[in-house]
Amino acid sequence: MTDILAILASAGLWAAVLRIATPLILGTLGELLCERAGVLNLGIEGIMTFGAMIGWLAVFNGADLWTGILVAALSGAAFGLVHALLTVTLGVSQHVSGLGITLFASSFAYYLFRLLVPVAGTPPKILPFQPLQIPVLSDLPFIGPALFTQTAPTYLSIALALLLGWVLFRTPLGLAIRMTGENPHAVEAQGISPVLVRYGAVTAGSALMAVGGAFLTLSAFDSFIPTMVQGRGWVCIALVVFASWRPGLALLGALLFAFFDAFQLRLQTALGGQVPYQLFLMLPYLLSIAALAVTARRARVPQALMQPYRRGER
Amino acid sequence: MRFERRVHRPAALVLAAPVIAVAAALALSGVLIALAGAPVLEAYGRILTGAFGSRLAATETLTRAVPLILTGLAAATAFRARLWNIGAEGQLYLGAMAAAAASSLLFGSLPPALQIPLLLVTGALAGMVLLLVPLWLRLRFAVAEVVTTLLLNFVAILFVSMLIDTALKDPMAFGWPQSLPVTESGTLPKLIPRSRLHVGLAIALALAVVLAFVQARTVFGTRARAAGLSPAGAVFAGVPLGRTLMQVALISGGLAGLAGAIEVMGVTGYVTTSLSPGYGYFGIVVAMLANLNPLGVVAAALFSATMFVGADAMGRTLGVPSYIADVTVALSLLAMLVALFFTQYRVRR
């Protein structure tokens, strides 16, 4: 019990929560945007892997960190275009197309990495994003080290969650996106092309996912390791359901999830090998499943999710 | 330009679709091989000789095809009923672990004729149990099984990793994390002496034939298909949806668990966390390339195994990363989706 209190009282825990949450926030927002327009994107796991690899590779080859983020975003957008081509223009199964994108993007990432980066005993490193020093706030006792020692992309991801919430619920563009996910025929009747909206949402959403992946190699860590995404993409898909397709709740869900993840990591060291470490590592996945079981029935699913839209066909 | 639904699906086109898809995937991968600075045609030539050039290579390719046939069948059975079982990887690991544990702890002293069937059933049961959890969550809580099966892959592999670190660790393995071994009499007999090819191939082929019959000629096959095409319509027509999905899940999870049991009883002899290089995930590609047809699964699994075994050999000599096989197989799935689309639709101006 005192162990648990000591963990909760350490600023390191709360700093870790924000760090662990960042890729989840970005991935969840990306998936949420796709699904709000009616397209399930199971490519997320592969897109995050590719974003992590290509962003790192760009920086490794001399680009600056923000260029790395941009390169990752562009690669994600490219995979998003392929997914949109298959699921929106052709209207094939969104499940299978997404899984295909994941298999392709991750194996392509491994292929390029093996081809372009010399094999070495220790994985090559880059200089990642450094924590931002915010005047006054970073110097506050406890709150400073707990909340204000993050890197720039973390603050950016939180801002993006608020921005996406505003766009979706307060702008005509957001109305068009949400309507496309509910009833694309009605969108067409308003003179807006649901095809165009879906293309835009899937492309932009996939770019966000790739940036989430790139955060892993450019900020949380400094090298690329195959399989480092470790199911984060699938967790993001669960978080979208948990958040009932609302960006604000998605932010909250990602933070909550990250809290449990950071907490189990520290509990693991505190208990020092009395319990097999694999049990702790299982917790995040089991937690996602439990969260789905609790929220799935109550969640308001976009009504046209996974429904291909073909003009003049019902 | 617009797409118009075809009234009839020409059989020739449906048969040609996977061939065209694979050709397109090979062409695209050719660009990546060229990027690595290797001669493309020679690389593909070496993949072929690497997979079939010698007796050893050919038996190795067939050995590699066995788990792919089984996970392919698992995916094909489930997808036909639109049960999105993406958890074959975890089910495979659990099946392998169950078979190895049952052999060394329970049935180890039994003669092969008794022990081998018992181990196969144990493995299949483990796979079934793991898939019943997501199915229950879907039927009870309306949770999409696609996410839960994906997440459970990680749980299952961590669980296996924990067991081979603790309770089921092989004490004779010099500290390596590997499981207790399958006993001598629980090992699958070889199909061809002096090779790794085991009777698992015969089991996989037999199951493909059985499933083809079940799909085409039984009430269950029709119900499963109806449940996939339109759940509401199926219920209206009197199909017991929950029970049908349950049967589909038992078959699908069982096949994936069996894949693990056969792999550990026929090839490795014990379980490690690198037992499967993604057989569960590539089973999805195999199923789709086969257009969910059980007999087609055999051909598609053979193609994937050829790529994996051949690319290893080619990579060693030409310096192309052997991940090219994964890339090609994944690309063939995407290409297959496009090819299948054009069997259903035609382009009109």
Quick overview:
Chain A is mostly helical. Chain A is 70% helix and 0% strand. Chain A has one domain (11-119, 133-295): ABC transporter involved in vitamin B12 uptake, BtuC.
Fold and architecture overview:
The complex is a heterodimer of chains A (314) and B (349). Chain A is mostly helical. Helices cover 70% and strands 0% of the residues of chain A. The radius of gyration of chain A is 20 Å and the shape is globular. The mean pLDDT of chain A is 92. By secondary structure, chain B is mainly α. Chain B has a single domain, classed as ABC transporter involved in vitamin B12 uptake, BtuC (Orthogonal Bundle), CATH 1.10.3470. Helices cover 73% and strands 2% of the residues of chain B. Chain B has a two-stranded antiparallel ribbon with strand order 1-2. The longest helix of chain B is centred in the middle third of the chain and has 30 residues. Chain B is globular and about 70 Å long. At the A-B interface, helix 5, helix 11 and helix 13 of A face strand 1, helix 6, helix 11 and helix 13 of B. Chain A: It comes from Paracoccus salipaludis. Chain A: It holds the Pfam family BPD_transp_2. Chain A: It is found in: Cell membrane. Chain A: GO terms for molecular function: transmembrane transporter activity.
